[in-house]
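Researcher: Going back to the complex we discussed earlier. I've cleaned up the inputs and rechecked each line, so this should be the final set. Can you rerun the prediction on the complete assembly and write out the structure?
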Amino acid sequence: MKLRVNCNLEYEVSAETTLILNIEAQRNAGQNVVSEEFSAAGNLATETHVVPETGNRYRRMVLPVGAHRLDYRAEIETAPFIGDPGRIAQMPVAELPFEVVAHLSPSRYCQSDKLGRFAWRTFDGIADGHEKVTAICNWIFENVDYLEGSSDASTSAYDTFTLRAGVCRDFAHLGITFARALGIPARFVSAYALDLQPQDFHAVFEAYLGDRWYLFDATRLCPIDGIVRIGVGRDAADTAFASYFGQLNGPPKLISVERIDGPQPAEWTTGAVSISAD
Amino acid sequence: MKLRVNCNLEYEVSAETTLILNIEAQRNAGQNVVSEEFSAAGNLATETHVVPETGNRYRRMVLPVGAHRLDYRAEIETAPFIGDPGRIAQMPVAELPFEVVAHLSPSRYCQSDKLGRFAWRTFDGIADGHEKVTAICNWIFENVDYLEGSSDASTSAYDTFTLRAGVCRDFAHLGITFARALGIPARFVSAYALDLQPQDFHAVFEAYLGDRWYLFDATRLCPIDGIVRIGVGRDAADTAFASYFGQLNGPPKLISVERIDGPQPAEWTTGAVSISAD
Amino acid sequence: MKLRVNCNLEYEVSAETTLILNIEAQRNAGQNVVSEEFSAAGNLATETHVVPETGNRYRRMVLPVGAHRLDYRAEIETAPFIGDPGRIAQMPVAELPFEVVAHLSPSRYCQSDKLGRFAWRTFDGIADGHEKVTAICNWIFENVDYLEGSSDASTSAYDTFTLRAGVCRDFAHLGITFARALGIPARFVSAYALDLQPQDFHAVFEAYLGDRWYLFDATRLCPIDGIVRIGVGRDAADTAFASYFGQLNGPPKLISVERIDGPQPAEWTTGAVSISAD
Amino acid sequence: MKLRVNCNLEYEVSAETTLILNIEAQRNAGQNVVSEEFSAAGNLATETHVVPETGNRYRRMVLPVGAHRLDYRAEIETAPFIGDPGRIAQMPVAELPFEVVAHLSPSRYCQSDKLGRFAWRTFDGIADGHEKVTAICNWIFENVDYLEGSSDASTSAYDTFTLRAGVCRDFAHLGITFARALGIPARFVSAYALDLQPQDFHAVFEAYLGDRWYLFDATRLCPIDGIVRIGVGRDAADTAFASYFGQLNGPPKLISVERIDGPQPAEWTTGAVSISAD
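Model: Rerun complete. Updated structure for the full complex:
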């Protein structure tokens, strides 16, 4: 699928501020960045870094006092690997790549150590592999209300599990938490997403099954093959689209994602989708 | 300093168990492993992995049902970098190496997003750089009781801050949390430690100051230059000495650490100590 | 049912301690105390108080340094009101006695404000009145493991809901929490209980339905008509069997409850049981 | 002091709603209600109840769908007991009235069981009796930011202690928590308050010292003898000014409190103030 992505950020800076953005699309075998352009009004100098282990792309800059406008636009062609959900098995820990094992540990927003008993009671018997993570997503969709304003930056999976309401980031955190509790490595993915209403950044998760990372989205808000990966990490603490150290304000970010090689809205894929190169 | 380390683990396994150990000393410029030996009774096959970014050494094995005994012994020569505490400054975020920035984020046991207001009120004015982290350690030592049994595997810095009691791991988590809240990258270090009573694994933390990671130990239980690094990570979730997937039991681990090139107990260093190569 | 109750407490006091006991059986229309005796070795002076609103009986004493032995024995005849579960309806808040309304509020261990969304999703449609609270008890029994040692004095319903393990006090807290979240007044009951294994104090809860308080026990550990009420309150914070202010230690309390007018174990009542006079 | 109080509430009800108000001033020896009037537009029937143990006054009504306007106006003359702070001692638990002892227990928003270690470390040595509770208030004032919007209905003292920000209700909860942890009975007071900016309901707390309940206000927002008590209870869970069961919305309540027998702003009393009759 070929997608055009736009992201516009505006800031009013009241004291010199260091800003680190993670809004540029990953480049990997599953996701080709055909063209892209980052621009900052006023010829602001920026410094970039690609994390070798994840492909996350960071851009750091020092914003002087005043108004700033930052734009990212890109054309991305995704070439997802599509698997057969019924044949993708969970790997025993003894056979997982060592790099992947760390994604079994609890993290800031995903206290898999606390929700293990529930996860085992609920999901242990009902399926295996890709189907088990799909069962997790179904459970979340059926038991948690998607409700704007019901959570904030400190809300974790532990809270969402009891409060039963959240937004995309909370849905992803809860999915990650259950997967890890069941011995399935899982990580957070910040993304651009086709057909998301209203248009915004999106959050989904990946679980490591068979020999790769598969995408999952418990919100059912957009087609899973319309996802463009920006950042991957343990949870939202690792994958903020913008981190700043200073003082700034701004209007809401403007995001647009459109398909440029086929119909919108997209038809929804029913297979297992992976756009991770690792 | 030259140290001899022994670690003996015994397990009674009641169902086949995958065990991942992280008990072997890191090898880096600040810490030379002169000799070492890992042995598992019964010629058990083990698989090893060194994480490129951290130097953490993992050993994975599948334990069949029955009794198992695992031993690690090593001679390590530490060559710490000793700095002048008064001259080691905090780096602005704009100048931090990108790899280090991730250690500003909150993690499972270190909710720096929740304790920021306290940290700023308490530590903002009183010092800078190495001295600020020392002030954090002093505050912890003076305000938190070291009390065996007062915490468990789910205790986080948020709990320790209110309950005001904990063990070495809790002291490290709280130090990391305050440092991150103040914009100082910090990470957890699992360690062998000289003169620790009773002998056991130890937990301390590192803060990134100037151009390297410096060791800090808010417990004041052992000399900071008697630390041998085993694992580094976001917090204890990343640095368990043993993770298992299966069913096992065992008597307490036996640890011994002794100095073989000088007097015990050691004289305590008063400078800033770094044994990190990065 | 006629029951003989024994309770023996021993304390080793290391600094003068004020002790407040709440171990004596309530006297009310549903529960007649035929005979009873409280004795404290050494002619210790004690002061008693009956709370008018609840019938809770407190006994306060100052224990000097040394060894102490306190005994309570009683014969109690319960005359429970037995209702027809299918005909006991939930009262609208507009018709509840004002005294009862306070039992809709959240309390220390029963955060009904946080578990409301789950309670409505799960229990709203499935039954009404006494049957709804029975459905709550069934859900708890089926979804929470009864596990000695899995909780402590700070464990609340919020924790039990996520951790999915607890003891009788946790089961009662969770039942109270769900009931309140659904608009049903509920309170904690500390009790002597027939056929409880091992013999100990017990904790159950009461919900206000129709025109009285009905007993519920989500643990299914003993017959509901073998309950002798000691204290009622918002939750365990109100109904400790012993509160002390000083320093004391002691071996485990010894409790025995036996039926003296019929067979043990008792046959289990299937109706709705109330032993509350209010 | 003679005060005129106005309280105006407006509601838009979208489904029949039971409303319970607790907005009418207590009548007791310390606080004489000279005149008062409650009115509900449309001749709505209301039912009232005075709780014997506390003097809290509740008014219950069923609001049909539509717009509603409720008004309460009163003239109150306070006759506070003014003590000498240096001579008001903490009572040993052995001598407290039994009715008061319950106010040593933790409650929904005041987890005194969790903050005990801190309270003892911080306040144990520094003063006694009324002065100790004043020291608690000073600590709160100096260490917690008064910040509108920093807390919500689920925020408890445990949260406020770590987050270090809150509003009047949070300040009261934290004061109650520390007092209870130190063995001083304490309770929540909802109130009308003179000179509060902006005018609104207020929350303060009372501690039982000597032989009565004394008022404390850690916010320093208004003179302590300008307080008119509405409700007392364990914490805010017991003393909501309005509880509803149904669906309603409304603009912000309008409150006014003015002194009608002397200057505004009032001079601040420096003694210990009690307006409780018990």
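Model: Worth noting: Residues 130-143 of chain D form the longest helix (14 residues).
Researcher: Good, that matches what I expected from the previous run.
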